[in-house]
Structure formats: C-alpha cells, structure tokens
From TrEMBL, chain A:
Source organism per UniProt: Paenibacillus soyae
Protein name: Sugar ABC transporter permease
Compartment(s): Cell membrane
TM ranges: 21-45, 82-103, 115-133, 178-197, 218-241, 261-286
Keywords: Cell membrane, Membrane, Transmembrane, Transmembrane helix, Transport
Topological relation to the membrane, as annotated: Multi-pass membrane protein
Cellular-component GO terms for this entry: plasma membrane
Keyword Cytoplasm: no
Domain ABC transmembrane type-1, chain residue ranges per copy: 82-282
Database matches in SUPFAM superfamilies: MetI-like
UniProtKB/TrEMBL annotation, chain B:
Main localization (coarse): membrane
Subcellular location: Cell membrane
Keyword Transport: yes
Gene Ontology CC, one term: plasma membrane
Family note: Belongs to the binding-protein-dependent transport system permease family.
Name this polypeptide is given: Carbohydrate ABC transporter permease
Alphabetized Pfam families for the sequence: BPD_transp_1
Residue stretches spanning the membrane: 45-66, 105-129, 141-165, 177-200, 221-246, 295-312
Protein's membrane topology: Multi-pass membrane protein
Keyword Nucleotide-binding attributed: no
Family annotation (PANTHER family): ABC TRANSPORTER PERMEASE PROTEIN MG189-RELATED-RELATED, SN-GLYCEROL-3-PHOSPHATE TRANSPORT SYSTEM PERMEASE PROTEIN UGPE
Superkingdom as given in the UniProt entry: Bacteria
Organism: Paenibacillus soyae
Taxonomic classification: Bacteria, Bacillati, Bacillota, Bacilli, Bacillales
Keywords, in A-Z order: Cell membrane, Membrane, Transmembrane, Transmembrane helix, Transport
Length: 297, 327
C-alpha cells in the first residue's frame, strides 16, 4: 500500500466515523445556522443600517455607527434604562444567589419532611415566569411586610443616596417575587452539595473541627463553582424578567416609524455587549479564583 | 491582682469544662446539639422555623391570588377583609374562563408545550450523545457555540426571526415553536444538550462496546440502549421544557398574537376584554373591578403544571439529583 492509498483509506475511515457523529448533530446544525447564525448576522447587519419597511420588503440605507451613537446621544430613555437595569441586576443577582445558598444549605440537612419543603421551594419554577408574574408585579403583592411597617424608604434614601434609592426600593418592593427566581438555583446548589463526599466531613470532625469550621473550610470552597454557575444562570434568566425596562424599550422602537428595526437591533446589540461584559467579568473572577486553588492543592 | 483574677477564671473555666464534658452531660448535649449541625434538636427546630417562615413569605403571593380570586367585589373595596372573603364567589372564575377562552387557549398551550418538549428531548439527547460519545470534528467549537446560543439574549435575534417566520408564513401557527425545537433551538435547548452530554459522559463505556461487538449500529445502540438508560434525564428535560414552554411569554407575544393564542397572551388581553373602555396604558393600573378576575385567570393558567408537578414530584426531584446536572 503506498502512501496515497493509505491516506485515502485513513480519510475514508475518519469520514465514516465523523459521518455518524455529524448525522446525530445534523438537526442541531441546521437549526443553528437557520435560527441563530442567520438571525445574528442579519441583526448585526441591520444595526448598521436604517431599515425601512416598504411594499416589496426592506430598504436598507447604510449609516454606519449612527444607530449606536443615537442610542447614547439622542435617545434620552435608553441609557437611563440601561443604568437602572444594571443597578437592579447588581442587587438582584446577589440576593437571589445568597438566598438560594441559604435555603439549599437548610434543605440539605437531614430532617423529616424535607421532601415537602424541597417541593415547596421548587414550586415557583413552575409559575415564576411570564405573564402571571408580571400580573403579580402590577399588584405589588411581593412586598415583604416589614418595609411598610418600619417605613424603610427614607432610611434607604439616606444610606445609599437618592439616585440609588429608587432601584433599591423597587427591588425591595418585589423581593418575594424576585426570590421566586431562585428555584433552579436552589436545585443546582442542593445537587452540588451531593458531590461533596461525606467522608470529608467525618474526617474533619475527628480532627476536631466544629460545624462552623467545616462550613467555611469545606462546604463553601467546594460550592464556589456552583456559585459561579448560579450567578451566570441568574444573569441569563433575568433576560426576560418582566421588570426589565430594556425589553419594552426595544419593542417600542421596533414598531416606531422613525426608528425601526435597524435602531431596535442596535439597542439589542448594545444590551448584549453589556451582558456579555458582565458574564466575562464573572467568569474571569471565578475562573482565576478556581485556578489559584487548583495550583495550590 | 490581675494575675489572681486570671487564675481564678481559668479554674472556673476548667470546672465548667469538666462539667460539660462529663458523660451524662455529653449525652444530653449530643441529643440537643448533635454531632453534626443537623442532628440536634435545636438545629432541627431552628431549621423548621426558618424554612416555614420563608416558605410562608414565598407562597404569600399565591395565597393572595387564591384569596382575591374568591372575593366578591364588595370585599375588594372593604379594607377590613384581608385574606378570607366574607362569602366565596366563583363569579371571577367563570368570567376568567370566558375571557381567556379557556378550553381553546388551554389546548393551544398544551399542544405547544407537549409537542415541543417531545422534540426537545429527542433532538437534545441525540446532540448530547454525539458530543459525549461519537467522533465529532471540532467538538470544542460546537460546545462553545452551544453555550453561545444560551447566552444570546432573545432580544437580539427576535427581529430577524420575526421576519423569517413571516416570510415562511409560519406566524400565528404552532410551527414558530415546533420548527426551532425540532432543530435543537427551542427554549433553553443549549442547557438540555449540556445536561444530556453530561449524563452520557458519566455512563460506563463498556455497555456500548459490548453492543458494538454484537453488531448493533450506532443508531440502534442509541435508541435501544442509551436512551432508555437516560430515562431520568429525559424526564427532567421533558418537564423543564414543558414548564418553560407553558410559561413562555416574550416569544409568543411577538409570534402568536392573532387566532392561535396561548394562555399567556390571552391573559395579557384580558384587561381589554373585561374593560373595553379603558384603552391604552392598562399595564400600570390596579383596577379592583378586574383584579379578581385577573387573579382567577392567572390561577387557572398555573393550575395544570402544578397538578402535573404534584403527581411527578418524586421522580422529578430524584431525577435531577441522579442525572448529575451540575457536575
């Protein structure tokens, strides 16, 4: 067998091997191209154009970065909304993740009836999305009772400043409904705790560690990857959060005649860039942290 | 002086110490405090207390929903009636039933949720299996792309998708969801693919080797052996997908606005149906006349998934732990 033949045989072998793999991937590949790649490319293209809907379809006028410039300079609502949303997120993500950690720590203990409680805390996953939730938001039933009782509003305004007070109050006002977003996170944490071997706890107990120590020295470090996973999941889950002002603004601009699809796409891309930076920061922080630990051990 | 004081304190401390560590005391301590944090009586009581308080706060909106739903109009205006209505009424439920066009909308919602979830299980398991076990070129790139599809906000691609669907004439039909789900781009498909990939990776390869030696084709191997093995993962994915399709609001509000409308969109329209004179910005107004009906409607929407969850709860929670979603 000469080299050429050998190579061809090798190729054929790889071809048939890759063939089945790719066949299994085929639906996803087609879907990815038609429902992700094309729309993403298209919307990027639109964001650099002024798009007008005419009888025969779309009319594109290339205007370069003007849409993006307009979003920050001409639009008086968008930058404010972006900042508001950012402030809300800054508050909501830690609240959700810490709450999930707290609850899952308790649910992880062995006590009779814990299945009932687990089911209870999972319940909001079933209805905590979409229209039902925003209906509840408008009724403002998600308030924690003590906010009114102790008249927290001036207190908050005093401590965090007038500018921050509004998002803080809106988050506090809907605290319960925001906590409803922690169902999946609780599940992830509970399943994450299962990965820590019980023998480690036994070992440190024999070495004389108190439960307090073993939480800080064992449970928490082992949970760090799940915390980062949950932070990412929470950020993504809040994309379609009913209180997200950016969604409404993008939709409004889509159907406005003088702004149209092009401008709306540009807004969506700015929003995406913003989220992407946020995710990259989280990944960077936790990635470095984990690498350090791996190097040390 | 200080020296003496210190000495005395140390002595007292030692006394106390020995008292605590005498055997009987130790036993009692074990019972109350326990060896682990969770074993003792005190810890358990604290946990029960905290969990119950939080659970009450957590479920309060639902209780509010149910109570408001049963209140007659007079009770809505009466500030002394807070939780329990003077006289329960089913008027709101009847109104909501009509306003939602409940039977039809329920059918639409369940058709979308069931069919899309089945397709998601089928396609995501295939893709996950390929990525976990089969030879796929550029595997790392594919995985990165899958994660990317999860991270892209729907707002970015919703406009082109709208145009594509309207060009294909799919708007206001079930296919706006069924086609992407069949092609692995449904709601949170990326997450499901990763779940299946993780699951298949954790299975021992000897099973497949044996089947291969017996001459099974890759597809038979997958459908006959690996998929039945992944039953718990399939159930978890199906249920999550079902719930997320059931509650989907953003996409239907773009694609399904006329004729073929699911429950979530009908709830959105309810205010206008109930109150035709109130045009324009109805979102921010809390209207006591329609509030009861809206709460009834919301309750009727979440009722079917809650019933399903109650029935399948045991398998669901244990399935999640068994699939090792998080590893």
């Amino acid at each position: 067998m000469d080299a050429k033949q050998k190579k061809r045989a090798e190729l054929r072998y790889h071809g048939s091997r890759y063939g089945t793999g790719l066949l299994f991937m085929l639906p996803w590949l087609i879907g990815f191209c038609s429902f992700v790649l094309v729309p993403v490319g298209w919307s990027l293209f639109m964001s650099f154009n002024k798009v007008q809907v005419s009888v025969g379809g779309f009319k594109y006028d290339y205007i370069g970065l003007e849409n993006f410039r307009d979003a920050f300079l001409k639009d008086n609502e968008f930058p404010v909304q972006l900042i508001t949303y950012f402030q809300q997120m800054l508050l909501m993500v830690p609240i959700i993740v810490l709450f999930a950690l707290f609850i899952s720590l308790m649910l992880n203990q062995r006590f009779p009836g814990r299945f009932l409680y687990r089911a209870l805390f999972f319940l909001p996953v079933i209805f905590a999305t979409g229209q039902v939730l925003s209906e509840l938001f408008t009724q403002e039933v998600g308030e924690i009772p003590f906010i009114d009782q102790y008249n927290l509003e001036p207190l908050v305004a005093e401590y965090v400043g007038q500018q921050f007070a509004e998002p803080v109050m809106s988050v506090l006002g809907n605290a319960v409904l925001i906590l409803w977003y922690s169902g999946v996170q609780i599940l992830i944490f509970v399943a994450g705790f299962q990965t820590i071997s019980p023998t480690i706890y036994e070992a440190v107990r024999i070495d004389g560690a108190t439960p307090w120590d073993s939480f800080w020295k064992i449970t928490l470090p082992a949970t760090v990857p799940f915390i980062s996973l949950n932070i990412l999941y929470t950020i993504i889950d809040l994309f379609t959060f009913p209180l997200n002002p950016v969604i409404a603004h993008i939709r409004e601009n889509m159907f406005k005649v003088d702004t149209g699809y092009g401008y709306a796409s540009a807004l969506a891309w700015i929003y995406f860039a913003f989220i992407f930076v946020l995710i990259a920061i989280v990944l960077g922080l936790f990635g470095r942290n984990m690498k350090k630990r791996r190097a040390r051990s | 002086m200080i020296q003496e004081l210190k000495l005395g304190m140390a002595k007292a401390g030692r006394g106390l110490h020995s008292l605590i560590w005498s055997r009987r005391a130790q036993k009692a301590k074990l019972m109350v405090i326990g060896r682990n944090v969770s074993d003792g009586l005190i810890a358990k009581l604290v946990i029960y207390f905290l969990l119950t308080v939080v659970a009450y706060l957590y479920l309060q909106p639902i209780l509010y929903m149910i109570s408001t739903m049963l209140k007659p109009l007079a009770d809505m205006y009466d500030p002394t009636v807070r939780w329990i209505p003077r006289q329960a009424t089913f008027e709101n439920i009847a109104k909501a039933f009509e306003g939602l066009q409940y039977p039809k909308a329920l059918l639409v919602t369940s058709a979308i949720a069931v069919s899309c979830s089945i397709m998601q299980v089928a396609v995501c398991s295939m893709t996950g299996y390929a990525l976990a076990r089969l030879a796929v070129p550029l595997r790392a790139v594919f995985i990165a792309l899958i994660i990317l599809t999860f991270v892209i906000p729907p707002q970015v691609i919703i406009i082109p998708l709208y145009v594509i669907f309207s060009k294909l004439g799919l708007l206001n039909t079930i296919f706006v969801f069924l086609v992407p789900a069949t092609l692995g781009q449904g709601v949170k498909s990326a997450l499901f693919i990763l779940i299946f990939m993780q699951f298949f990776r954790s299975q021992p390869p000897s099973l497949e080797e044996a089947a291969k030696l017996d001459g099974a084709s890759t597809f038979r191997l997958f459908a006959g052996i690996m998929l039945p093995l992944a039953r718990s993962a399939c159930l978890v994915v199906f249920l999550f997908s079902f719930i997320w399709y059931w509650n989907l609001y953003y996409e239907p509000s773009m694609f399904l606005t006329k004729g073929f409308t699911p429950l979530s969109i009908r709830l959105d329209m309810l205010e206008e149906i109930l109150n035709p004179t109130l045009l324009g910005n109805t979102r921010t107004i809390v209207n006591p006349i329609t509030e009861g009906t809206k709460m009834a409607a919301a309750f009727m929407i979440i009722l079917p998934p809650i019933l399903i969850f109650m029935v399948l709860q045991k398998w669901f929670v244990s399935g999640i732990e068994r699939t090792g979603i998080v590893e």
